[in-house]
Automatic annotation (TrEMBL):
It comes from Ancylobacter pratisalsi. It holds the Pfam family SnoaL_2. InterPro entries: NTF2-like_dom_sf, SnoaL-like. Transmembrane segments: none annotated. This is Nuclear transport factor 2 family protein.
């Protein structure tokens, strides 16, 4: 077993930028192939999806649903150890107000994302 830690920030920012902000389906699929294990699982608040194609479809649907200027932005560097990484993020229209905040929590296996939990913060009052 290797004691080398993966680059949590690179992987989780890559997921945010190259998967969940990528509107081109082919580029998104290539990024997923690079960042995720062969059979990843993503846990959303109301859904569990399995497989690279399903994760790509969810990312594409989110971008389509929220419009052409919607973007996810990291809210600091990702941190992690022993195969578990966390990246806080915020999202909303580019240049506009933040619509939602949350965190991605990832279990990494062999330097790739195996399981991803999308945690949404409660809305501000």
């Amino acid at each position: 077993m290797s004691t080398h830690e993966p680059d949590y920030d690179h992987l989780l920012r890559g997921n945010l930028e190259r998967v969940f902000n990528e509107r081109d389906a082919d580029r998104r699929a290539r990024a997923i192939d690079e960042l995720f294990v062969t059979d990843p699982v993503m846990h959303e608040p109301d859904n569990v999806v399995t497989g690279r194609a399903a994760i790509s479809a969810i990312a594409g649907q989110l971008l389509e649903q929220f419009g052409p200027s919607f973007r996810f932005t990291p809210a600091g560097p990702a941190v992690g150890h022993h195969g578990l990484g966390v990246l806080r993020w915020e999202a909303g229209p580019e240049g506009g107000p933040v619509a939602v905040t949350g965190s991605d929590v990832a279990q990494l296996v062999d330097g790739r994302i195996a399981r991803l939990w999308v945690l949404l913060n409660p809305p501000s009052v």
